[in-house]
Design goal:
CATH topology of the largest domain: Transferase(Phosphotransferase), domain 1
Number of helices: 10
CATH architecture of the largest domain: Orthogonal Bundle
Number of strands: 12
CATH class of the largest domain: Mainly Alpha
Distance between the termini: 48 Å
Number of domains: 2
Strand content: 15-25%
Bound molecules: adenosine-5'-diphosphate, magnesium ion
Length: 315
């Protein structure tokens, strides 16, 4: 009898460690069959993203495929962010976050299907530079529109209690409406999309755009690298408390303006945007007021001669 039970136990297939995490998800989030992908758009920190074109409607979709067994992945957090938070925000900010369509899970592989929202800003900027037909004046006006829409998108996100945590050119898409030539900007990548909560949240993001208060909290790895001491504030290494979380996105926004259009704002305002103290950074309404009140500067130092390289997120 005892022998028989052991046999039965050892023949049982191993439990899927991720299944309970999916079982906890809200059932109203669409579960779909994964579409056949056509062309790889990008390999990111956590997965691969493909382009899928529906054979009938010709509509384009982006398909993100993530292997949850990858050691750098915190599966519970990723599933919550990429599915639950993404679904929620894409309903709350449909004009500013690329639309979530559905997800599929099988055999450790998570597939997220979303609208295809155009080239990312990193690629778009490179195309803009290479384009000789568009005047410089027009290009600066386009950049101003892009940065205005990014600020509006962050405002929508923050108003609904979310922090993006990984604002950078690779996580922003730009699409031109062929009918009126207007530019539409959307945020993508819900990998770090976090809800403000009473608990400290784990620090994530891309070092080049990461606010200093996050860098200091970002695992001792960074501190060792920079030989800096831990700040005496209440941060736990690797985690950050709830206060001023939104300011971290504003810092990343400031770093992006600095790199891509440093003359968009006056020098004082630029300094404040990336101020080391979060409370010194302007709020999103202040940024938007400034943008709406100013005429776009077409100074030739608008970041054109810088070399930009893609940056990847720290796991
Ligand atoms: N919905 C989308 N529309 C267009 N391009 C996308 C979309 N989602 C992702 N991409 C492209 O794929 C890249 C990687 O996707 P992302 O979600 O940022 O993954 P990762 O978490 O690996 O950074 C993006 O930088 C962008 O170039
Ligand atoms: Mg990304």
């Amino acid at each position: 009898m005892y022998q028989h039970n052991i046999m039965k136990l050892s023949l049982r297939p191993p439990e899927d460690p991720f299944k309970p995490m999916f079982d906890r998800l809200d059932t109203k989030i669409p579960l779909i069959n994964p579409p056949s992908a056509t062309k790889r758009i990008m390999s990111g920190a956590f997965g691969q993203t493909y382009l899928h074109i529906d054979a009938e409607t010709k509509k384009k979709y982006a398909v993100k495929v993530i292997d949850l067994t990858k050691p750098s992945i915190n599966a519970g957090e990723l599933i919550k962010n990429e599915i639950e938070n993404y679904y929620d925000i894409s309903h709350k900010c449909p004009d500013y976050f690329c639309q979530f369509i559905g997800y599929h899970y099988d055999n450790n592989i998570l597939t997220i299907v979303m609208d295809y929202c155009g080239m990312d800003f990193f690629e778009y900027y490179a195309h803009m530079l290479a384009d000789n037909k568009t005047s410089l004046r027009k290009k600066f006006a386009m950049l101003k529109s892009i940065f205005t829409q990014i600020a509006e998108a962050l405002q929508c996100l923050h108003q609904h209690g979310y922090v993006h945590f990984d604002v950078k050119p690779e996580n922003i898409t730009v699409q031109k409406n062929p009918n009126n030539n207007k530019i539409k900007v959307k945020l993508i990548d819900a990998g770090s999309l976090t809800k403000y909560s009473t608990n400290p949240v784990r620090v994530q993001g891309t070092l080049d755009y990461m606010a200093p208060e996050l860098k200091h909290a970002y695992l001792p790895k960074y501190l060792q690298k920079t030989k800096k001491n831990l700040p005496s504030s209440s941060v736990t290494p690797g985690y950050v408390s709830n206060a001023d979380l939104g300011g971290t996105d504003i810092y990343s926004y400031g770093k992006m303006v600095q790199a891509y259009y440093p003359t968009l704002f006056d020098d004082d305002f630029m300094r404040e945007l990336t101020h080391p103290l979060p409370f010194r950074r302007p709020s999103l309404p202040e940024i938007l007021n400034k943008l709406r009140g100013s005429s776009s500067s077409s100074s030739s130092s608008g970041g054109r001669r810088r070399r930009h390289t893609k940056k990847s997120r720290q796991p």
